[in-house]
Design brief:
By secondary structure, this protein is an alpha+beta fold. It has twelve helices and eight strands. A hairpin with a 2-residue loop joins β2 and β3. α9 packs antiparallel against α11 and α9 packs antiparallel against α12.
């Protein structure tokens, strides 16, 4: 395996994140998987702790899913390791413990990442300390964000939003929801904008909580928006519709959050591999780091192949985050990381269940016997923030120089 050394200034943060995962996330993982929709009260005290980790990482680096923002790197700084890289490193550690817990950490929602990515300084200050979810998906619109039907109409000092949103992670528990809506359906992608909607706003109604295959510690909500009036200063990014630019400003959110989801998948894949290695060694199967895979037991050889898939996903994720820190366009790398990590995580989780046999398929307690749960948790990481197929399409367009109209 390739071992890239963690930057010195991030080592304490990464160690703190791992301790949280080991002492809080992992031991309570099974309990909240069984008690879906029950809020993990253990996270209340951790919310403040994680806020401190984000503030104390050196230059505003983050440990959870929030705090992702393009770094204002100067040309004379050379290579810069900043908030994006530290956040994916922290996310990997926390998701080694439990993905659902990370997704329901107070003030660490994907909506927080959206705000951090494109908000003005005034908006950052106004929404500081708030927990934000992100609402993109609709009943008739999944991975094709340009097909959004929720509308936003300017009326004086407010936008009036109407539509329906589903699969909103942490939607019930969050203080704010970043809602994607169109200013003009006839103008396609260019008219898509994101709006910060505060919970309790008249017309913004929670209609149900979903029952899910995995990540059950995290709530997933559906909303209806009926004449929801949102102050115009709650629009994120440029209010003007620029047909030439398309919705690149809104899509910048994905360039920063897709590496986060990839980091979640990398953390979960590592948990599966470590547990499986322990079980294989207990069964007397030797994993020789110096011997070629073909010269080892068939189970050991397969394990080595899974390790290589994990390492490739990890390196792609670190690359996408590093590029964001250094103000390099990373849309291609973000999609490559998300595609590779999502697919590899699912494969690794399922193959580890198979390699472990009955021990992988059965439920267990505490930090043991979680392979079957991790296999269920893994699938969503290949779906949300853009499915595997959408990521491959984006990568193809970037590599071939094709537009969305030319390559569908």
């Amino acid at each position: 395996m390739i071992n890239l050394e963690t930057p010195k200034k991030f080592r304490m943060l990464v160690d703190q994140a791992h301790q949280v995962a080991r002492q809080i996330f992992r031991p309570n993982s099974r309990r909240y998987d069984r008690a879906e929709h029950l809020y993990p009260r253990e996270l209340d005290m951790l919310g403040a702790l994680l806020d401190g980790m984000n503030a104390g990482g050196g230059g505003g680096e983050g440990a959870g899913a929030a705090g992702v923002r393009r770094s204002a790197a100067r040309s004379d700084e050379g290579n810069r390791n900043s908030s994006n890289l530290s956040t994916v490193l922290g996310t990997m550690e926390l998701c080694w413990g439990d993905v659902g817990f990370l997704l329901t950490m107070p003030r660490q929602g994907l909506g927080n990442s959206a705000i951090a990515s494109v908000a003005t300084d005034e908006q950052l200050e106004r929404f500081k300390g708030k927990w934000a979810a992100m609402a993109i998906t609709e009943p008739g619109c999944g991975s094709d964000s340009a097909a959004i039907r929720t509308t936003a109409r300017l009326d004086g000092d407010h936008y009036v939003l109407n539509g329906e949103k589903i699969y909103v992670t942490a939607g019930d528990r969050a203080d704010l929801v970043v809602v994607w809506a169109t200013l003009d359906r006839n103008l396609g992608r260019a008219a898509i904008k994101s709006f910060v909607v505060e919970k309790g706003t008249p017309g913004f109604e929670l209609v149900r909580l979903e029952h899910k295959l995995g990540i059950r510690a995290s709530d997933t909500a559906a909303f209806v928006l009926n004449d929801v009036r949102v102050p115009r200063e709650n629009l994120l990014g440029d209010p003007e519709i620029n047909v030439d630019k398309g919705f690149a400003g809104v899509m910048q959110t994905f360039d920063n959050t897709r590496p986060l989801v990839a980091a979640m998948a990398v953390g979960l894949a590592r948990a599966c591999l470590e547990e499986t290695r322990k079980l294989l060694e207990q069964a007397g199967i030797e994993l020789d780091d110096d011997a070629p895979a073909f010269a080892q037991h068939a189970a050991a050889s397969e394990y080595r192949r899974l390790e290589s898939e994990y390492e490739a996903a990890r390196l792609l994720t670190l690359q996408a985050a590093w590029m964001a820190d250094n103000r390099k366009p990373n849309s291609l790398q973000a999609s490559m990381a998300k595609a590779k990590a999502g697919r590899s995580c699912v494969e690794i989780a399922l193959r580890c269940v198979e390699l472990a046999g009955p021990l992988g398929y059965a439920e267990g307690e505490g930090g043991n016997g979680l392979l079957e749960k991790w296999a269920r948790d893994a699938k969503i990481l290949d779906i949300f923030e853009g499915t595997q197929q959408i990521q491959q399409l984006i990568v193809a367009r970037r590599l071939l120089g094709k537009t969305s109209a030319e390559l569908k």
